[in-house]
Design a protein that fits this description.
The complex is a heterodimer of chains A (745) and B (625).
Chain A: H1 5-8, H2 12-45, E1 56-58, H3 59-67, H4 71-79, E2 81-84, H5 89-95, E3 106-109, H6 114-139, H7 162-167, H8 171-185, H9 190-208, H10 212-266, H11 269-275, H12 277-302, H13 304-319, H14 324-368, H15 370-375, H16 379-404, H17 407-431, H18 437-478, E4 501-508, E5 518-525, E6 530-534, H19 541-546, E7 556-561, E8 564-565, H20 571-576, E9 578-581, E10 590-591, H21 592-596, H22 605-614, H23 618-623, E11 631-632, H24 641-653, E12 659-663, H25 671-685, E13 689-693, H26 697-700, E14 705-710, E15 713-718, H27 720-726, H28 728-736, H29 740-744
Parallel strand pairs in A: 6-13, 6-14, 9-12, 12-13
Antiparallel strand pairs in A: 1-3, 2-3, 4-5, 4-7, 7-8, 10-11, 14-15
Helix pairs in contact in A: 2-10, 2-13, 2-18, 3-6, 6-9, 10-12, 12-18, 13-18, 14-16, 14-17, 14-18, 17-18, 22-24, 27-28
Chain B: H1 32-42, H2 47-87, H3 95-144, H4 147-152, H5 155-197, H6 199-246, H7 248-253, H8 257-309, H9 315-356, E1 378-385, E2 394-401, E3 406-410, H10 418-424, E4 432-437, E5 440-441, H11 447-452, E6 454-457, H12 468-473, H13 481-490, H14 494-499, H15 517-531, E7 535-539, H16 547-561, E8 565-569, H17 573-578, E9 581-586, E10 589-594, H18 596-602, H19 605-615
Parallel strand pairs in B: 3-8, 3-9, 6-7, 7-8
Antiparallel strand pairs in B: 1-2, 1-4, 4-5, 9-10
Helix pairs in contact in B: 1-9, 2-3, 2-5, 2-9, 3-5, 5-6, 5-9, 6-8, 8-9, 13-15, 15-16
The chains are: A alpha/beta (745), B alpha/beta (625).
């Protein structure tokens, strides 16, 4: 993975933007539960009352509250309230809002900025709690618990106005009472106090005649508005991340694909042999697509999961710090589940591919050997062989499927179990008044988010190594240098239409091979002559001619053109001088014309025409309704083998090069065409040097020089007649081709 | 042999890089209904297991769905308890009741998980069993299909049915079938639970669905366009890459690297645009759906709070409802996705069933001739044959061959020399006339008996991935090791085998480079020696064999032919000269027959062919082999 990082550098900026967006998304996603909790907590449970500081309170009630505040605190409270007496001008403006104002004086909150509220909250909240507690005691004396010693409300004689009574008590007694109450309420934090005060405040609002329903509605609407805004923000962040990750992934894929293709185009045959064509194709296409998906996933999940997970933990801890261990437990259970399931399944996963290959192999063998199978009546045997492979694969698949099947139910159980645990533990904490119900619900959601984040991360940890294989395969190619390089100070090949090719004690060995495949090859090919190479498969005849355009470099000796070592000129210059017809006559997508003009798009029409004539391709091209404009499909599969070969020959001839190489290029031609072609070639190519590889004795017969190769050595050099006299291997070859042996005898 | 034509499978769109996602391009079956009913029929024998799957899936889903509602009661208890305590009107939180609820839930969740596992476990069993059966049936079907079938179907295509198509069916059975059941159950269950809490809130939640659906459709349509474009340009790129890599030498020899790269970049840049657009658009779906879901949540909360004020609903119920409504989207998306998966499954299953329904070889005769041993007399009587019914290639061919005679088949490459072989062994049936072996029409034997009379050595030395011992024993499966080694000696391959480190236990693989083509050929000869048939079919072509091995092969073949009626696809002059009869083939037809001297005297195609070889440049002549 890291090996490809430099290709990601241009995208560092937008990846960074993505991460910032993900960060915002995580914050938004994490704050959403707070608002959903608020809607339930405050909006529904507390009737929309979200502070212990009432907007208005009757004077009588305020007096009761003030009883339980110190003088200093009372001052603070009163400083923020305005007393409105009934019948005053102020009262008229408030009357509609607070109908009770017709009969009673009320205090109206003058400053509702959040600073003031924060200061007043604990003071008034506590006072509300005490007052409502006492009120409750008055209403239902039975409920008052007996307290030992000190001051007790129970000692107050019946029928006495408790608050008036308290008001008349000496300060010392009141102070004692306050301290006692404070101790009792110490366990409550501000939110708790607000939650508790909400009930008497709602009662007070009702008494004043305030429309409590609208308070509630307003609160919910306001919170919902914020919530939707956050959701929208989160959605926009997600879309932004989607946009940037798509551009990053597609862009990096494009860059890599380009780099890879350019790299492969510079490769010599060594590298092609090393990687194999099909593997290079897969790397340029499939592996890159894999990587593209990986990049998207990395940005959207690998980066996001930790942000979400850590953020979730932080917020959850803030909501209910004492319950952290429930999250830890759930995550641990999840990890254990994943490790167990994959620990059991992974070894089997590894052998699955082998079993599939085995099944494929057996099927392919059955198909390719169909006639043999039927000839030997071994259908049952084949079926048993297949059945074994099938059974093995099925058993392993079934095992994996059943192990992996435990994932879903296990995960569901962990999630649900975590929810239960949070509620059970949370309920006790609520009872102890350490957290609120809404916090418990919010915590539950955070816990699930954290568990989900860990789940995402662990799945990625399983998936990334697989995708990383693709990355490695791509990096392997990108880090490979072509082993055939141009010289630093290239010489020029003499401008000459004549090219004398000389092999001087050339030996050659494929990289990594133990033995040389060519030994001590020495010969000279003169301009205007044909040198033919013949020998059985594996004798090295194709290898010899492939050394001329430097598809490979010699490992010993030298190849010279007009006295210049071909390694001293640029590959481009060298190849400008070579007309090459490959063994597999591969054509390119396009038209016949575009293929013939492959060496030079602007070549004159009569040059093309002459090449067509020499290659004996005129007849079949003119028979095609669209002639030269006939479409050629990929690989040239829509023309026959013989036609393809003739087009490949014509393509090389259009180049009008001093050297022509025909690597077994007449194999698909019939005798007549073969001989006519060679005759025309001889006439038209004039001074060109022709190197020709073939298996056919009849094809080499007219060559000025025939080189017979056996196991990489020259075992005969001369004309047909000379070799028939002197070279036993040549005789054997001739003999094995019907009729030739006859002449010799 | 007629050319293998691959049916246009390549045109089938591949899955986009998003895989199964609803935005990918989906391949469709021609006959969705028919294929699906066939698939259901195919699942028939697993009826009981399927019912189990269904019951457990539904049960586990129901338990899972009931959870939030009961959990809601717990929250309500906590909530009311704490409020009661604060107001001083209640006894505080009733932990006894909560504990009961918790215990109920634990039991419920455990049962639900176990049920879901049972469902997945059984379903995996069904899926794998079906996969196994399909593969087995395909493999067996291969052996019953006439060779004719493979003229028009490539190996790769059959292989892809055994692996890819069967895999697709298996996967969707394993994953999707359970998912369909659970999704539908979840959807219905959640709907019922929501209704049981509040119909108004349910209505609000449901109203959001068409919005989601509309958005999904709009996004899918947009992204589909780019996915298709992406597919097209991926195709261009792949084509260009394949072409330029496999023609690398040509590109280099013609100094065309720069032009090739230029064209590649052109494709690559277009691909880039469609790739990120497709990716981006399909990625839009989730956030939009989430936002719509959140709108639903808010609506539900608002209505819930109004209801709560009136006391029509408890806070716990609201909480439960919210959980339900959040789960509502998931099964909807799954169901939307399932239709795609089903389409893919149907397309794959259709190909499998199509293959299984292909016409098989004409069955063996009801009352076959009983044979103990063959003499080796063969007669072709006015045989007519064509690979295509409307294109007869062999016209009215007759010849009688006595036991022990040698028949050489000659003709240029592509003249159809193997046709005779295929007819003799009844790989194909003649259209007119008859072929008789020992006086009986070959259709009157069972194929097994007829084929056991022949031994065959083809140019392409077919050996399978097994040891050398196993491969030679292939000629007669009940042969002892000693018999196998004796056959190997007779085929001059014993010596070579003993030079291998593992000897007869050497495993032959496709790329075992230490065993040459020639040695492989010798092993196939040993195989036939072991089978000891009365009639022989030999292909002499030994193009890629070194001279020494070739001599061994000749000698082994000569030994094999002794006293056996032999049909030789001949390449050697000596074979042809010594043949009792030569069949000369051209363009699929047998144009001449007779001995070497007779045919030369006729001065026809054979003479022309023969002469062209040593004169080299005779017009009108094709090459012999």
């Amino acid at each position: 993975m890291t090996r490809l990082l430099k290709y990601m550098r241009p995208y560092a900026g937008i990846v960074l933007i993505s991460i910032v967006l993900l960060f915002f998304q995580a914050i938004a996603d994490l704050s959403l539960p707070t608002y959903t909790a608020d809607i339930v907590n405050v909006g529904i449970q507390q009737g929309g009352v979200d502070t212990a500081v009432p907007v208005a309170i009757r004077e009588t009630e305020m007096d009761k509250l003030l009883l339980f505040l110190t003088d200093e605190e009372s001052e603070q409270v009163l400083a923020n309230y305005t007393l409105v007496e009934p019948g005053t001008s102020d009262a008229d403006s408030y009357l509609e809002e607070y109908p009770v104002l017709g009969d009673e004086a009320i205090y109206v909150l003058a400053n509702d900025d959040s600073e003031t509220i924060d200061i007043l909250n604990p003071l008034m909240g506590k006072a509300f709690l005490i007052v409502s507690g006492i009120q409750q005691a008055i209403d239902d004396p039975e409920s008052i618990p007996e307290t030992e010693g000190g001051f007790s409300l129970a000692n107050i004689p019946e029928g006495v106005d408790l608050f008036a009574f308290l008001g008349n008590m000496p300060d010392a007694v009141l102070n004692q009472l306050r301290t006692q109450m404070d101790e009792g309420l110490a366990a409550l934090d501000d939110d708790m106090i607000i939650q508790s005060a909400a009930v008497p405040i709602q009662a007070e609002y009702t008494a004043i005649g305030i429309d409590t329903t609208s308070i509630q509605n307003n609160y919910i609407m306001r919170t919902a508005g914020i919530m939707l805004a956050i959701a929208l923000f989160s959605g926009l962040c997600t879309i932004g991340v989607g946009y940037y990750s798509a551009r990053t992934a597609a862009g990096a894929a494009r860059d890599l694909r380009k780099a890879l293709f350019e790299r492969v185009e510079s490769f010599s045959n060594y590298e092609f042999d090393k990687f194999s064509v099909s593997s290079l194709i897969t790397r340029t296409t499939n592996d890159i697509t894999q990587l593209q998906m990986l990049i998207v996933m990395v940005i959207r999940i690998v980066f996001f999961a930790p942000i979400l997970g850590i953020g979730g933990i932080i917020i959850a801890m803030r909501t209910a710090p004492s319950m952290w261990w429930t999250i830890a437990l759930a995550v641990a259970a999840l990890l254990i589940l994943i490790i167990t399931v994959f620990g059991i399944a992974l070894p089997k996963f590894r052998i699955i591919q082998d079993l599939i290959d085995r099944l494929n192999l057996v099927s392919r063998e059955n198909l390719s050997g169909m006639m043999v199978v039927r000839a030997f009546n071994t259908q049952d045997f084949e079926e048993k062989r297949f059945d074994k492979a099938n059974q093995d694969l099925t058993d392993t698949n079934l095992f994996i499927a059943r192990v992996v099947a435990a994932m879903m139910p296990g995960m569901m159980f962990i999630m649900n179990g975590a929810t239960l645990l949070v509620i059970w533990v949370g309920a006790h904490q609520v009872a102890q008044l350490t957290i609120q119900v809404g916090d418990m619900i919010a915590f539950m959601q955070y816990a699930l988010q954290v568990v989900m984040a860990f789940l995402m991360m662990s799945i990625m940890f399983i998936m990334i190594p697989r995708a990383a294989v693709s990355a490695d395969r791509i990096a392997d190619v990108l880090e490979t240098e072509s082993s055939i390089k141009d010289p630093n100070n290239p010489k020029n090949l003499p401008e000459n239409d004549r090219a004398r090719i000389e092999f001087r004690n050339v030996s050659f060995r494929y990289p990594g091979a133990e033995n040389d495949i060519l030994h001590d090859i020495t010969f000279t090919a003169e301009p205007g002559t044909t040198t033919a190479f013949i020998g059985s498969t594996g004798s090295g005849k194709s290898t010899v001619v492939n050394l001329v355009p430097r598809f490979y470099d010699v490992t010993g000796g030298a190849v010279l053109i007009n006295g210049v070592d071909i390694r001293d000129v640029t590959q481009h210059d060298l190849r400008e001088n070579v007309g090459y017809v490959p063994q597999q006559s591969l054509l390119f997508t396009g038209t016949i014309d575009s293929n013939l003009r492959y060496s030079d798009d602007n070549v004159a029409a009569d040059v093309v025409q002459e090449a067509i004539e020499i290659a004996q391709a005129e007849e079949f091209i003119s028979e095609k309704p669209e002639g030269l404009e006939t479409e050629i499909s990929q690989g040239g599969t829509n023309v026959s083998g013989g036609q393809r070969q003739r087009l490949a020959i014509a393509r090389a001839l259009v180049k009008r090069a001093p050297i022509y190489i025909f690597d077994d290029s007449f194999s698909a031609l019939d005798f007549k065409t073969d001989s006519a072609l060679r005759k025309a070639l001889k006439e038209k190519t004039g001074d060109s040097t022709i190197l020709l590889v073939t298996q056919r004795v009849s094809t080499v017969k007219t060559a000025e020089q025939i080189i017979v190769l056996d196991k990489g050595r020259i075992v005969g050099k001369g004309t047909h007649d000379e070799l028939m006299e002197t070279c036993s291997i040549y005789q054997e070859i001739a003999e094995s081709q019907l009729g030739i042996g006859d002449i010799a005898s | 042999m007629s050319e293998n034509k691959t049916r246009e499978r390549n045109n089938a769109p591949q899955r986009g890089p998003m895989g199964h996602g609803p935005a990918g391009v989906v391949e469709k079956a021609d006959d969705f209904r028919g294929t699906m009913s066939k698939l259901i029929e195919y699942l028939g024998q697993h009826r009981l297991s399927l019912v189990i799957v269904l019951i457990f899936a539904i049960a586990s889903t129901i338990f899972m769905i009931v959870g939030p509602k009961i959990l809601g009661q717990a929250t309500t208890l906590v909530f009311e308890g704490i409020i009661g305590e604060l107001r001083g009107t209640g006894e505080g939180i009733d932990f006894g009741a909560i504990q009961n609820i918790m215990l109920t839930l634990v039991v419920l969740y455990v049962i639900s998980s176990i049920f879901r596992y049972i469902q997945a476990h059984v379903m995996a069993g069904i899926a794998m069993e079906v996969t196994y059966r399909m593969r087995k049936e395909i493999a067996e079907k291969i052996n019953r299909l006439p060779l004719r079938y493979f003229d028009k179907t490539s190996q790769g295509e059959v292989l892809s049915r055994i692996t890819n198509d069967v895999d697709t069916v298996s996967q969707s059975l394993n994953q999707s079938l359970g998912q369909i059941v659970t999704s539908v159950t979840t959807l219905i269950g959640i709907l019922i639970m929501m209704l049981s809490i509040s119909w108004i809130m349910t209505l609000v939640s449901v109203i959001v669905i068409p919005v989601s659906v509309a958005i999904i459709i709009a996004v899918v349509q947009q992204s589909q366009k780019y996915f298709k474009e992406q597919q097209v340009f991926l195709g261009h790129i792949n084509g260009h890459v394949e072409e330029n890599y496999s023609g690398h030498n040509v590109v280099q020899a013609f100094n065309r690297e720069a032009e090739s790269i230029e064209k590649f970049n052109e494709y690559n840049d277009t691909l880039y645009t469609s790739a990120w657009m497709a990716q981006f658009l399909s990625g839009l779906m989730m956030p939009i759906m989430m936002f719509v879901g959140n709108i639903g949540f808010v609506l539900v909360s608002i209505i819930g709070s109004f209801l709560a004020i009136r006391g029509a609903i408890t806070v716990g119920d609201i909480q439960a409802f919210i959980q339900y409504s959040r789960q509502f989207n998931q099964p909807i998306m799954q169901i939307a996705n399932i239709s795609n998966v089903l389409q893919q499954t149907a397309a794959a299953a259709e190909r499998v069933f199509e293959f299984l329904a292909e016409e098989e070889e004409i069955p063996n005769t009801e009352s076959p001739v009983q044979v103990n041993s063959f003499k080796g007399h063969v007669e072709f009587k006015n045989v007519e044959f064509g690979y295509d019914a409307d294109k007869v290639i062999i016209h009215d061919f007759s010849v009688e061959i006595q036991p022990g005679q040698k028949i050489a088949i000659v003709g240029p490459t592509g003249a159809g020399k193997t046709t005779i072989v295929k007819l003799l062994m009844r790989f194909y049936d003649v259209s007119e006339g008859a072929i008789l072996v020992d006086g009986h029409e070959i259709q009157d034997f069972t194929r097994h008996d007829l084929r056991s009379a022949f031994g065959m050595v083809l140019q392409d030395a077919w050996l399978y991935n097994g040891t050398i011992m196993e491969n030679i024993r292939y000629g007669r499966l009940d042969a002892t090791d000693e018999e196998v080694i004796a056959a190997a000696k007779a085929a001059y391959v014993d010596h070579f085998v003993r030079t291998l480190p593992d000897g007869y236990d050497t495993v032959l693989t496709e790329d075992s480079t230490n065993i040459s083509q020639g040695q492989r050929q010798l092993m196939t000869i040993a195989r036939v020696i072991l089978a000891d048939p009365r009639l022989l079919i030999l292909d002499e072509a030994t193009s890629s064999v070194d001279t020494r091995t070739e001599v061994l092969i000749q000698r082994a073949m000569d030994r094999l032919m002794e006293n056996r009626t032999s049909f030789i696809i001949a390449h050697r002059l000596s074979t042809i000269r010594n043949a009792d009869r030569i069949l000369v083939m051209r363009d699929g037809d047998i144009v001449e027959q007779g001995s070497h001297n007779d045919l030369l005297a006729q001065d026809g195609f054979y003479a022309e062919l023969y002469n062209s070889q040593f004169e080299g440049e005779v017009p009108e002549a094709n090459q012999i082999a």
